[in-house]
Specification:
Elements: E1 7-9, H1 18-32, E2 36-48, H2 65-73, E3 76-80, E4 83-85, E5 89-90, H3 94-97, E6 105-107, H4 131-139, H5 148-159, H6 161-169, H7 184-195, E7 204-215, E8 221-231, H8 239-256, E9 264-266, H9 271-283, E10 289-294
Parallel strand pairs: 1-9, 2-6, 3-5
Antiparallel strand pairs: 2-7, 3-4, 7-8, 8-10
């Protein structure tokens, strides 16, 4: 890309994207005043607005259903109090990219996925199968005509009562035919994309939060929090569409207008880039609130 004189500006959506911009603004402000970042923890979620979280998962899709489900099964790596852990995604590399190598805790959500394997019962050209039959197959039950109550009991033994009730409420134990999409992930994505979609009069809600622990040169410690909350508009755009689409569009225009001269694969980490992006996002009404409190 560099040799071809091409710019690929990546990670300029919501997460990754706005999370980087707000993190770097806060981190650089602290460092410029002599502070040291001891811990950086970041969370971001796209959810239905609270009044519309009315199903067993308290969730409805505002972005790619397959991506949402991949997010729940992806491998992971993060740094906590000097120890490397592995619950969800790789956060460790961002310590150096953010310029906070001294931090003993580094946790953020950046996606990297591995595709699951096809399941023979879900081949599109295979025999028809119902959700109830597929549940029996996954549980190793030879008789798919098992009484419904017995199936629910066996399922509860495997995943707990709450989990079994959630699957039941989502219709995943019914005798309705499955639209087979090869893999369990793609099949359930297709099903839930229809079952858990936002209705026309419903709105979504995006929340992003950074939590930093800071030590100053005089030994004092503080906790700094950056919070962004954006609610969708049922007459216009979802919060997810705004917080992903706007920064992407702004970044694309910056490249086209020659404001970003760097060539190759580029991240929005330089002050010139992230400050300009944040300024334009704020002009469009996407803002965050920063608070500070002492830890001593």
């Amino acid at each position: 890309a560099k040799e071809a004189g091409v710019t690929f500006l990546n990670e300029v959506g919501l997460d990754p994207g706005i999370d980087h911009l707000l993190a770097l603004e806060c981190i650089h402000n602290i460092q410029n005043h002599g502070g040291r970042i001891d811990s950086f923890v970041s969370y971001c979620g796209g959810l239905p607005a609270p009044e519309f979280s009315d199903n067993a998962l308290r969730y409805k899709f505002s972005w790619n259903p397959r991506g949402v489900l991949l997010n729940t099964i992806s491998a992971a790596k993060y740094l906590s109090k000097g120890q490397v852990g592995f619950p969800n995604r790789d956060s460790t590399m961002y310590a150096s990219l953010y310029g906070i190598e001294e931090a003993h805790t580094m946790f953020r959500g950046t996606l990297r996925y591995k595709d699951p394997n096809p399941h023979p019962s879900l081949h599109p050209d295979g025999p028809n199968i119902t959700w109830r039959q597929f549940a029996c197959e996954l549980l190793g039950l030879m008789d798919s005509t098992i009484f419904y109550e017995n199936l629910r009991t066996r399922l509860a033994e495997r995943i707990g009562t709450s989990g079994a009730q959630s699957l039941e409420s989502l219709g995943l134990l019914e005798d309705s035919a499955i639209v087979k999409c090869n893999t369990p992930l793609d099949t359930i994505s297709h099903y839930l994309s229809n079952r858990l979609q936002l209705e026309n009069d419903e709105t979504d809600f995006v929340v992003l939060r950074h939590e930093l622990e800071v030590t100053w040169s005089d030994g004092k410690k503080e906790r700094r929090e950056v919070t962004m909350a954006v609610r969708g508009d049922p007459l216009s755009h979802t919060a997810m569409a705004r917080t992903v689409g706007l920064p992407t569009a702004i970044a694309a225009k910056m490249v086209l207008d020659g404001e970003i001269q760097e060539r190759g694969v580029v991240l929005p980490f330089s002050p010139v880039v992230y400050k300009s992006l944040l300024s334009r996002l704020r002009a469009d009404g996407i803002t965050a609130r920063e608070t500070t409190r002492p830890l001593n």
